[in-house]
Amino acid sequence: MTDVLNSLKYPKMKKIFCLTLTLALLLMMFLPLQQSSAADPVGASYTVNGRRLSAASAGDTSDWIEIAQYTHTDGTSYSLIVRENYINTYAGSGHYGDPTWQYSPYSSPLGTNYLNSGSRVRNAINNWFNGRATGPAVDNLSANAYLRSYTVQNNAANTLGTASTAAGLTNGFSKPTTNQVRTGDDIAFALSYGEAATFLSKTHFVRSLNPQTQTSNTLAITNYGKINIPQIYGYGMWLRSPGDIATTAGGLDYTGRAFQFQIDPTTSNERGLVYPALWVQSSIFPSSDIGYVVHYYLEGTTTSVAPDKIGTGKVGSSVTESAIGVSGYSAVAQQVSQKLWLPLVMNLYSTIPRNLFQLCIQCTII
Q1: Three-class DSSP category at 151
Q2: Rounded CA gap, 261 and 268, in Å?
Q3: What are the phi and psi torsion angles at 120 (to 5°)?
Q4: 20 to 30 Å CA-CA from 138: which of 20, 79, 88, 316?
Q5: What pTM was computed for the model?
Q6: Buried residues in 4-38 as b, exposed as e (16+ CB within 10 A)
Q7: For the chain, which ranges sit under pLDDT 70?
Q8: Backbone angles phi, psi at 145, to 5 degrees
Protein backbone atom coordinates (compact mmCIF):
# COMPACT_ATOMS: atom_id res chain seq x y z
CA MET A 1 0.00 0.00 0.00
CA THR A 2 1.41 3.38 -0.93
CA ASP A 3 0.96 6.29 1.40
CA VAL A 4 -1.12 9.38 0.82
CA LEU A 5 -1.94 10.20 -2.77
CA ASN A 6 -4.96 12.44 -2.26
CA SER A 7 -6.01 14.54 0.73
CA LEU A 8 -9.32 16.29 1.23
CA LYS A 9 -8.75 19.33 3.47
CA TYR A 10 -11.25 21.29 5.53
CA PRO A 11 -10.14 24.84 6.54
CA LYS A 12 -11.70 26.88 9.32
CA MET A 13 -14.12 29.74 8.54
CA LYS A 14 -14.88 32.79 10.70
CA LYS A 15 -18.66 32.87 10.25
CA ILE A 16 -21.31 31.12 8.20
CA PHE A 17 -20.15 32.73 4.95
CA CYS A 18 -19.83 31.02 1.58
CA LEU A 19 -16.26 30.70 0.36
CA THR A 20 -15.05 30.51 -3.22
CA LEU A 21 -14.11 27.07 -4.48
CA THR A 22 -10.34 26.66 -4.57
CA LEU A 23 -8.01 23.80 -5.35
CA ALA A 24 -4.52 23.61 -3.87
CA LEU A 25 -1.74 21.51 -5.38
CA LEU A 26 0.99 20.79 -2.83
CA LEU A 27 4.27 19.32 -4.00
CA MET A 28 5.90 17.08 -1.39
CA MET A 29 9.54 18.20 -1.23
CA PHE A 30 11.62 16.04 1.12
CA LEU A 31 15.26 15.05 1.33
CA PRO A 32 15.66 11.89 -0.80
CA LEU A 33 16.72 8.62 0.78
CA GLN A 34 19.68 8.26 -1.57
CA GLN A 35 21.49 10.73 -3.74
CA SER A 36 20.01 11.15 -7.19
CA SER A 37 21.20 13.07 -10.20
CA ALA A 38 18.88 15.91 -9.22
CA ALA A 39 16.53 16.84 -6.40
CA ASP A 40 13.65 17.75 -8.71
CA PRO A 41 12.19 14.70 -10.46
CA VAL A 42 10.62 16.80 -13.23
CA GLY A 43 13.12 17.38 -16.03
CA ALA A 44 15.88 15.27 -14.51
CA SER A 45 16.56 11.56 -14.24
CA TYR A 46 16.41 9.86 -10.84
CA THR A 47 17.26 6.43 -9.50
CA VAL A 48 14.53 3.84 -9.02
CA ASN A 49 14.34 0.32 -7.65
CA GLY A 50 13.92 -0.92 -11.16
CA ARG A 51 11.28 -3.19 -12.58
CA ARG A 52 12.17 -6.16 -14.78
CA LEU A 53 10.94 -6.38 -18.36
CA SER A 54 11.06 -10.01 -19.41
CA ALA A 55 12.73 -11.08 -22.64
CA ALA A 56 9.36 -12.31 -23.91
CA SER A 57 7.73 -8.94 -23.20
CA ALA A 58 10.62 -7.02 -24.74
CA GLY A 59 10.88 -9.20 -27.83
CA ASP A 60 14.57 -9.78 -27.13
CA THR A 61 16.71 -12.71 -26.00
CA SER A 62 17.46 -11.06 -22.64
CA ASP A 63 15.50 -9.43 -19.84
CA TRP A 64 15.82 -5.67 -19.36
CA ILE A 65 16.19 -3.82 -16.05
CA GLU A 66 14.79 -0.36 -15.30
CA ILE A 67 17.41 1.73 -13.46
CA ALA A 68 16.10 5.31 -13.64
CA GLN A 69 13.11 7.40 -14.60
CA TYR A 70 12.62 10.82 -16.13
CA THR A 71 9.44 12.89 -16.05
CA HIS A 72 8.81 15.50 -18.73
CA THR A 73 7.07 18.72 -17.85
CA ASP A 74 3.94 17.38 -19.54
CA GLY A 75 3.84 14.59 -16.93
CA THR A 76 4.90 11.78 -19.29
CA SER A 77 7.20 9.28 -17.61
CA TYR A 78 10.18 7.61 -19.29
CA SER A 79 12.37 4.77 -18.05
CA LEU A 80 16.08 4.20 -18.57
CA ILE A 81 16.52 0.46 -19.07
CA VAL A 82 19.65 -1.63 -19.54
CA ARG A 83 19.99 -5.10 -20.99
CA GLU A 84 20.51 -7.72 -18.28
CA ASN A 85 23.05 -9.58 -20.44
CA TYR A 86 25.73 -8.45 -22.88
CA ILE A 87 25.12 -8.75 -26.60
CA ASN A 88 27.11 -11.32 -28.55
CA THR A 89 29.27 -9.52 -31.08
CA TYR A 90 31.79 -12.18 -32.13
CA ALA A 91 30.94 -13.20 -35.68
CA GLY A 92 32.33 -16.72 -35.53
CA SER A 93 30.23 -19.71 -34.54
CA GLY A 94 30.71 -21.94 -31.53
CA HIS A 95 31.25 -19.22 -28.91
CA TYR A 96 27.79 -17.76 -28.36
CA GLY A 97 27.35 -16.76 -24.71
CA ASP A 98 31.05 -17.15 -23.96
CA PRO A 99 32.37 -13.84 -22.57
CA THR A 100 35.96 -14.82 -23.23
CA TRP A 101 35.15 -14.52 -26.93
CA GLN A 102 32.63 -11.65 -26.81
CA TYR A 103 34.75 -8.85 -25.34
CA SER A 104 36.31 -6.27 -27.63
CA PRO A 105 38.63 -3.25 -27.62
CA TYR A 106 36.88 0.06 -27.13
CA SER A 107 37.60 1.17 -30.66
CA SER A 108 39.57 0.32 -33.78
CA PRO A 109 41.90 2.08 -34.33
CA LEU A 110 42.43 2.49 -30.62
CA GLY A 111 40.95 5.61 -29.07
CA THR A 112 38.65 6.78 -26.28
CA ASN A 113 36.10 8.74 -28.33
CA TYR A 114 32.70 7.02 -28.25
CA LEU A 115 31.59 9.12 -31.22
CA ASN A 116 34.54 8.13 -33.42
CA SER A 117 33.59 6.16 -36.52
CA GLY A 118 35.83 3.36 -35.28
CA SER A 119 34.11 3.04 -31.91
CA ARG A 120 33.57 -0.70 -31.53
CA VAL A 121 31.14 -0.19 -28.63
CA ARG A 122 28.92 2.37 -30.35
CA ASN A 123 28.96 0.47 -33.64
CA ALA A 124 28.09 -2.83 -31.97
CA ILE A 125 25.11 -1.26 -30.21
CA ASN A 126 23.85 0.51 -33.35
CA ASN A 127 24.25 -2.65 -35.43
CA TRP A 128 22.38 -4.71 -32.82
CA PHE A 129 19.50 -2.24 -32.57
CA ASN A 130 19.12 -1.82 -36.32
CA GLY A 131 19.58 -5.47 -37.25
CA ARG A 132 22.86 -4.90 -39.08
CA ALA A 133 25.15 -7.25 -37.13
CA THR A 134 26.45 -10.03 -39.37
CA GLY A 135 27.66 -13.53 -38.56
CA PRO A 136 26.13 -16.86 -37.56
CA ALA A 137 26.26 -16.20 -33.81
CA VAL A 138 25.66 -12.49 -33.24
CA ASP A 139 22.70 -10.79 -31.58
CA ASN A 140 20.27 -8.54 -33.44
CA LEU A 141 17.12 -7.01 -32.01
CA SER A 142 14.12 -8.34 -33.91
CA ALA A 143 12.53 -5.90 -36.34
CA ASN A 144 9.14 -6.45 -34.66
CA ALA A 145 10.42 -6.41 -31.07
CA TYR A 146 7.86 -5.00 -28.65
CA LEU A 147 10.57 -2.65 -27.34
CA ARG A 148 10.50 -0.69 -30.57
CA SER A 149 7.00 0.60 -29.91
CA TYR A 150 8.28 2.46 -26.84
CA THR A 151 11.85 3.57 -27.67
CA VAL A 152 12.49 7.31 -27.91
CA GLN A 153 15.27 9.54 -29.14
CA ASN A 154 17.76 10.85 -26.58
CA ASN A 155 20.93 12.92 -26.26
CA ALA A 156 23.24 10.20 -24.91
CA ALA A 157 25.63 10.36 -27.86
CA ASN A 158 26.23 14.05 -27.17
CA THR A 159 26.40 13.66 -23.38
CA LEU A 160 29.43 11.45 -22.82
CA GLY A 161 30.50 12.66 -19.39
CA THR A 162 33.92 11.81 -17.97
CA ALA A 163 34.93 8.74 -16.00
CA SER A 164 36.32 8.56 -12.49
CA THR A 165 36.08 12.22 -11.55
CA ALA A 166 33.77 14.22 -9.33
CA ALA A 167 32.61 16.10 -12.44
CA GLY A 168 31.69 12.76 -13.99
CA LEU A 169 29.03 12.30 -11.33
CA THR A 170 27.07 15.21 -12.79
CA ASN A 171 28.06 15.72 -16.44
CA GLY A 172 27.05 12.49 -18.15
CA PHE A 173 23.30 12.13 -17.67
CA SER A 174 21.31 11.51 -20.84
CA LYS A 175 17.74 12.67 -21.33
CA PRO A 176 14.92 11.26 -23.46
CA THR A 177 12.91 13.29 -25.91
CA THR A 178 9.22 12.83 -26.63
CA ASN A 179 9.99 11.55 -30.15
CA GLN A 180 9.10 7.87 -30.37
CA VAL A 181 11.15 6.03 -32.99
CA ARG A 182 11.52 2.36 -33.89
CA THR A 183 14.93 2.44 -35.61
CA GLY A 184 17.95 4.66 -35.99
CA ASP A 185 21.49 5.12 -34.75
CA ASP A 186 22.13 6.25 -31.16
CA ILE A 187 18.63 5.30 -30.00
CA ALA A 188 20.40 2.54 -28.06
CA PHE A 189 23.62 3.52 -26.30
CA ALA A 190 26.15 2.61 -23.64
CA LEU A 191 25.65 4.03 -20.16
CA SER A 192 27.91 6.85 -18.99
CA TYR A 193 30.15 6.73 -15.93
CA GLY A 194 27.75 9.04 -14.06
CA GLU A 195 24.72 6.93 -14.95
CA ALA A 196 26.46 3.74 -13.82
CA ALA A 197 27.72 5.32 -10.60
CA THR A 198 24.29 6.71 -9.73
CA PHE A 199 21.88 4.11 -11.11
CA LEU A 200 23.73 0.80 -11.47
CA SER A 201 26.75 0.02 -9.28
CA LYS A 202 27.90 -1.13 -5.88
CA THR A 203 30.77 1.35 -5.69
CA HIS A 204 32.28 4.07 -7.87
CA PHE A 205 35.83 5.38 -8.09
CA VAL A 206 36.37 9.14 -7.75
CA ARG A 207 40.02 10.09 -8.04
CA SER A 208 39.77 13.34 -6.09
CA LEU A 209 38.05 11.88 -3.03
CA ASN A 210 39.38 10.08 0.02
CA PRO A 211 38.68 7.23 0.00
CA GLN A 212 38.66 7.10 -3.77
CA THR A 213 36.25 4.16 -3.90
CA GLN A 214 32.86 5.43 -2.73
CA THR A 215 29.84 3.29 -1.85
CA SER A 216 27.00 3.83 -4.31
CA ASN A 217 23.44 4.57 -3.18
CA THR A 218 21.17 1.76 -2.04
CA LEU A 219 19.02 1.73 -5.17
CA ALA A 220 22.05 1.59 -7.47
CA ILE A 221 23.38 -1.37 -5.48
CA THR A 222 20.00 -3.10 -5.74
CA ASN A 223 19.87 -2.52 -9.49
CA TYR A 224 23.38 -3.87 -9.99
CA GLY A 225 22.25 -7.13 -8.42
CA LYS A 226 19.71 -7.55 -11.23
CA ILE A 227 22.13 -7.55 -14.17
CA ASN A 228 24.54 -10.26 -15.23
CA ILE A 229 28.21 -9.34 -15.54
CA PRO A 230 30.44 -12.44 -15.78
CA GLN A 231 32.29 -13.02 -12.53
CA ILE A 232 35.68 -13.20 -14.20
CA TYR A 233 38.59 -11.05 -13.09
CA GLY A 234 38.93 -7.95 -15.27
CA TYR A 235 35.60 -8.32 -17.08
CA GLY A 236 32.83 -5.76 -17.11
CA MET A 237 30.55 -3.40 -19.02
CA TRP A 238 31.89 -0.73 -21.35
CA LEU A 239 30.66 2.82 -20.60
CA ARG A 240 30.55 5.66 -23.12
CA SER A 241 32.54 8.15 -21.02
CA PRO A 242 36.26 8.65 -21.77
CA GLY A 243 38.57 8.00 -18.83
CA ASP A 244 40.42 10.73 -16.99
CA ILE A 245 43.80 9.40 -18.13
CA ALA A 246 45.02 8.45 -21.60
CA THR A 247 44.15 5.03 -23.07
CA THR A 248 41.18 4.47 -20.74
CA ALA A 249 37.41 4.57 -21.12
CA GLY A 250 34.63 4.12 -18.62
CA GLY A 251 33.87 0.63 -17.36
CA LEU A 252 31.64 -1.06 -14.78
CA ASP A 253 33.64 -4.04 -13.56
CA TYR A 254 32.60 -7.47 -12.32
CA THR A 255 32.76 -6.34 -8.68
CA GLY A 256 30.17 -3.62 -9.33
CA ARG A 257 32.66 -0.75 -9.35
CA ALA A 258 32.12 2.09 -11.85
CA PHE A 259 35.63 3.07 -12.95
CA GLN A 260 37.47 2.76 -16.26
CA PHE A 261 39.18 0.11 -18.39
CA GLN A 262 42.23 0.07 -20.61
CA ILE A 263 40.90 0.43 -24.15
CA ASP A 264 43.31 -2.19 -25.52
CA PRO A 265 42.63 -5.66 -24.04
CA THR A 266 45.89 -7.00 -25.47
CA THR A 267 47.88 -4.89 -23.03
CA SER A 268 45.88 -5.56 -19.86
CA ASN A 269 43.56 -8.05 -18.17
CA GLU A 270 40.55 -5.77 -18.56
CA ARG A 271 37.80 -7.02 -20.86
CA GLY A 272 34.85 -4.81 -21.80
CA LEU A 273 31.52 -6.32 -22.90
CA VAL A 274 28.69 -4.45 -24.62
CA TYR A 275 25.40 -3.80 -22.79
CA PRO A 276 22.88 -1.59 -24.65
CA ALA A 277 20.69 0.88 -22.77
CA LEU A 278 17.50 2.55 -23.97
CA TRP A 279 15.12 5.31 -22.96
CA VAL A 280 11.55 4.00 -23.29
CA GLN A 281 8.10 5.19 -22.39
CA SER A 282 7.40 3.86 -18.89
CA SER A 283 4.06 2.52 -20.08
CA ILE A 284 5.97 -0.43 -21.56
CA PHE A 285 5.81 -2.07 -18.14
CA PRO A 286 2.69 -4.14 -17.49
CA SER A 287 0.04 -2.29 -15.54
CA SER A 288 -0.49 -3.48 -12.00
CA ASP A 289 -2.73 -2.57 -9.08
CA ILE A 290 -1.51 -0.08 -6.52
CA GLY A 291 -3.13 0.97 -3.27
CA TYR A 292 -3.68 4.55 -2.14
CA VAL A 293 -5.12 6.37 0.88
CA VAL A 294 -7.45 9.39 0.89
CA HIS A 295 -7.11 11.68 3.93
CA TYR A 296 -9.76 14.21 4.95
CA TYR A 297 -7.72 16.95 6.63
CA LEU A 298 -8.47 20.25 8.33
CA GLU A 299 -6.84 22.96 6.21
CA GLY A 300 -3.22 23.66 7.04
CA THR A 301 -2.93 20.62 9.30
CA THR A 302 -2.80 16.86 9.21
CA THR A 303 -5.74 16.66 11.60
CA SER A 304 -8.33 14.22 10.28
CA VAL A 305 -11.97 15.24 10.28
CA ALA A 306 -13.15 11.85 8.98
CA PRO A 307 -11.71 8.32 8.73
CA ASP A 308 -9.30 7.66 5.88
CA LYS A 309 -10.48 5.85 2.78
CA ILE A 310 -8.44 3.11 1.12
CA GLY A 311 -8.64 2.50 -2.62
CA THR A 312 -6.86 0.67 -5.42
CA GLY A 313 -6.17 1.50 -9.04
CA LYS A 314 -3.92 0.66 -11.96
CA VAL A 315 -0.42 2.08 -12.12
CA GLY A 316 -0.42 4.99 -14.54
CA SER A 317 -4.19 5.42 -14.40
CA SER A 318 -6.07 8.38 -12.95
CA VAL A 319 -8.43 8.03 -10.02
CA THR A 320 -11.10 10.50 -8.93
CA GLU A 321 -12.21 10.89 -5.31
CA SER A 322 -15.18 12.90 -4.08
CA ALA A 323 -15.54 14.88 -0.87
CA ILE A 324 -17.73 13.19 1.71
CA GLY A 325 -20.29 14.70 4.01
CA VAL A 326 -18.72 15.57 7.36
CA SER A 327 -20.88 16.99 10.17
CA GLY A 328 -19.85 20.58 10.93
CA TYR A 329 -17.83 20.98 7.72
CA SER A 330 -18.56 21.92 4.15
CA ALA A 331 -16.42 20.94 1.19
CA VAL A 332 -15.50 23.81 -1.12
CA ALA A 333 -14.29 21.57 -3.96
CA GLN A 334 -16.15 18.33 -4.49
CA GLN A 335 -13.73 16.15 -6.45
CA VAL A 336 -10.03 15.59 -7.03
CA SER A 337 -8.22 13.43 -9.58
CA GLN A 338 -4.67 12.13 -9.55
CA LYS A 339 -2.50 9.74 -11.54
CA LEU A 340 -1.10 6.75 -9.66
CA TRP A 341 2.61 5.94 -9.79
CA LEU A 342 4.68 3.23 -8.15
CA PRO A 343 6.47 4.33 -4.95
CA LEU A 344 9.95 3.67 -6.30
CA VAL A 345 11.90 6.53 -4.72
CA MET A 346 11.36 7.24 -1.04
CA ASN A 347 12.41 10.10 1.24
CA LEU A 348 13.84 10.12 4.76
CA TYR A 349 11.01 11.73 6.63
CA SER A 350 7.89 10.34 5.03
CA THR A 351 6.72 7.23 3.25
CA ILE A 352 5.41 9.36 0.39
CA PRO A 353 7.52 8.71 -2.73
CA ARG A 354 9.37 11.79 -3.95
CA ASN A 355 8.03 11.31 -7.47
CA LEU A 356 4.45 11.74 -6.24
CA PHE A 357 2.54 14.78 -5.08
CA GLN A 358 -0.26 15.36 -2.60
CA LEU A 359 -3.40 16.96 -4.00
CA CYS A 360 -5.68 18.66 -1.48
CA ILE A 361 -9.29 19.82 -1.62
CA GLN A 362 -9.90 22.90 0.52
CA CYS A 363 -13.08 22.91 2.55
CA THR A 364 -14.71 25.15 5.15
CA ILE A 365 -16.29 24.77 8.57
CA ILE A 366 -20.00 25.70 8.56
Answers
A1: strand
A2: 9
A3: -65, -35
A4: 79
A5: 0.70
A6: bbbbbbbbebeeeeeeeeeeeeeeeeeebbbbbbe
A7: 1-43, 287-291, 300, 314-317, 332-333, 339-366
A8: -60, 140
